[in-house]
């Protein structure tokens, strides 16, 4: 029910491996819609940002939509894969476990060890510009003095980035996982669990039980998170608020705004990463 990328690309071939001497490495990659990066893992952490376009990342036990206003932190040794929703320029940061950050003029251990799970982060204009100026050339040459200073600032800005309560947990049960991936791809295809149940070949009662057992939530709550993720993708495409609300099945922009305020505790403008 959920289409795989038509073109799988290999993961990085070791040309951007971070080291204790060069703990932050940057990589840039332009990717076309419907392409993807095959599942892989590595012993260093990763931060995925989209300069343009929207990407979907499956990492660990969750799936995430990453528009230009957000970034995804992936801890070391967590398997992850990328699907490109629309043509995108992807900026990737590889962070060595020995990375340290500036604090009060001295370098201290990285706070990232306190982030054992994937998390979505807000991307500030400063962080975006710093990443854009990092050296993304492959190879193992030592970092220049300028790059080392930029890397210190990037790490400091990353650890200050506000986490965003987004991301959709994926179940272990294969039948429910396929259903969840279909909802992420097209959350409004069916308005009720009964509609999805007919497509999945299971009873609505069985699926409701699996949502509770596997994900600790209801179908309605999980689908609402999928709609919020879709809202980010629509906002990245410069859709106005009333069209975003309509495409997500809300009767009005005010109804959508009320839901965002209630569930996210912030304004729709801030949630969607819009600038005043």
Q: What is the name of the CATH superfamily of the largest domain? A: Regulatory protein AraC
Uncertain segments are none
Q: How many distinct folded domains? A: 2
* Alpha-beta content class: alpha+beta
Number of separate strands: 14
- What is the CATH architecture term of the largest domain? Sandwich
Residue-averaged pLDDT: 84
Strand content: 25-35%
* Strand arrangement across the biggest beta sheet: 1-3-8-5-6-14
Shape: globular
What is the fold named in CATH at topology level of the largest domain? Jelly Rolls
Order of helices and strands: EEEEEEEEEEEEHHEEHHHHHHH
CATH class category label of the largest domain: Mainly Beta
Distance between the termini: 38 Å
Q: How many helical stretches?
A: 9
Helical residues, percent: 25-40%
Radius of gyration computed on alpha carbons: 19 Å
Note the main sheet: 6 strands, mixed
Report on the structure:
The chain is α+β, with helices and mostly antiparallel strands and 276 residues long. The protein folds into two domains: 158 residues, Regulatory protein AraC (Jelly Rolls, Sandwich); 100 residues, Orthogonal Bundle (Arc Repressor Mutant, subunit A). Helix content is 35%, strand content 25%. It contains nine helices and 14 strands. The strands form three sheets. A six-stranded mixed sheet has the order 1-3-8-5-6-14. A six-stranded antiparallel sheet has the order 2-9-4-7-12-13, with helices on one face. Helix 1 runs antiparallel to helix 2 and helix 7 crosses helix 8. The two termini are 38 Å apart. The mean pLDDT is 84.
